[in-house]
Write a structure and sequence with these properties.
Elements (H helix, E strand, L loop, with lengths): L2 H13 L8 H14 L19 H9 L2 H4 L3 E4 L6 H9 L3 E5 L8 E4 L8 H8 L1 H6 L1 E4 L9 E4 L3 E3 L4 E2 L5 H11 L8 E5 L5 E2 L16 E3 L4 E3 L17 H6 L1 H12 L12 H26 L14 H11 L25 E8 L7 H10 L6 E5 L4 E7 L16 H7 L4 E2 L11 E2 L1 E5 L15 E3 L1
Parallel strand pairs: 1-2, 1-5, 5-8, 6-9, 8-10
Antiparallel strand pairs: 2-3, 3-4, 6-7, 10-11, 12-14, 12-17, 13-14, 13-18, 15-16
Length: about 475
Amino acid sequence: MQNGEETPAATETANTPQPEEVTKQSFRIKVWRHLETNGLAMFPRPVYNRIPNFKGAQEAAVKLAELDVFKNASTVKVNPDKPQEPVRVLCLEQQKTLYVPVPRLQNGFLNRLVLPEGETGPAAIRKAVSRNGMETYGQPLSIEDSVSLDLVVMGSVAVSKEGYRIGKGRGYGDLEFGLMMHMKAINPDTLVVTTVHDCQVFDTLPAELFGPHDVPIDIIVTPTQVIETQRMSSRPTGILWHLLSSRRVQQMPVLGQLREIEMLAGRACTLKEVDTDMEERGAARARRQRRRTRSHKSHSEGEGNTTEGEDGKPKSRRSARRRNSHKSASKDGKESDSKDQKPRRPRRPRPVIDFSVKISNISPTTRVRDLKQALTERGVKPQMMTWKGFRGFCYLHFYKSGPQKGEGDNIQAPNMESVISALSQMCVGGTGEQTNEKPRLLNVEPAPPRNAPQATPTEPPAAEVH
C-alpha cells in the first residue's frame, strides 16, 4: 500500500471514538447521571457516590411489605441508607425486630433499634430510623452475640435480573454480609432483597466484573414490579481476608477483632499486601491536600510575606501584617517594600438570581427550620430564602449555577417548573407548644427575582436566610 493511501485511514482511526471502558464504576456513573438528569433523585443530593435515594422509594417499600417473605419475617436487617428508610419504618410499625449496621463499621457492627417505652407512634418511629435516631436508639451487638435474621434488605446502585449487585464502591455491604455469615446470623436459605428504582435494574451485567466477595440479590423490588433473580453467582461464605489490606482492617475495629478470633482458631488470615481501591482514593486525596498546603506556603514565602521571624519561630498572621504595615512607610513618609506586600484577593462577584418562587398560606407559628426540613425532604435546596413567615409567606431564590465539581458530571440545574412540581401538595403545620393547628397546604407560585422592583416598596425589609 502506498504511503499516500495510509494517511486517510490513520486519520479516520484517530477520530473514531474509543469504546467506554466497562467497569462497575461506569455503571454507577450511568445510574447516578440518569437519576439526576431525569428528575428521579431525592434528598440527599447529589446522589453521586451514594446509595441513591429515588422517587418511589416509599412505593417500593410498600410493595416489599406485601410479599410473604416480609410478612413472615420477624427479624430483619436493613442498611442505614436513605432510600431504605421507608423499609425501616415498616419494620418498626409491624413490630419486627430491626437490625441496622453501624455506618462504615467504624464503631461496631450491628445495632438493634429499640423504641423508648411508651413511644411507638409515627413521630417516634420516624425519629428512630433517621441517622441520628439509629445512633441514639441503637443497642450495639458484637460479632460474638447470637442473632438469627429472617430477611436481609440491602441498598444498591445497580442490579441485574441475574442477581448481580453493584454498591457504591466501598465494600461495606459485602463486609457486613461476611460478618453475618461468621456470626451464623444468616444461612443459605436467608433471602437477600434490594429496593431500587426501575432505571437501576439491568437485564444483564458482565459476569467478569464480579468476584467471590460480591453478594448476589434474590429479589429486586421497584415501585412497579417484583423480580425474582436467577442468582448466577454464589454467596460469599465469610470474610475473604486476602482481599483486604492491613490498613482497611485497622480502620474497622470489628474486622480486627474477628481476625484475632480466626487466628486463635488456627485459620489462615493473610491480608492483601496492596491497599484496596477505597484506600487508594483516600490516600490520593491526602496527597492532593498536602500538595495544596505546600504550594500555599511556597506562594506566601515567594511574595515576601513570611510568617517567621529572624529566629525562625513562627509568627501569627496578625503580627506579620502589623510588621509589613510598619515596613510599608519609612520615616520620611515615603513608601518602602510595598512591592513585597501580598496583593489583596479581589472580591467574588455576587451570584445572579435565576428565578424565585413564592410560598404562601404559611401558619404564623411555623418556624424557618420547619419549612427547611420540608424542602429538604422534597430535594429542593434554594440558595437563599426571604422569610416573612409571620405574614404568611416567603420567597425561595435560586442562583444561576455553573458547572458542578466533584462528581465527574455536570448535574442539571433546577428550574422553576421542577421546583414547583416538587413542592406541589406540600403541607407544613404550626409547631408552637400551645397550638394544635393542623398542617396547612401551602401555595407555591412563581415570583419575580429578589432584585426586581417590588410592587410595595414601603414594606419593611425581610429577614434573609442563607
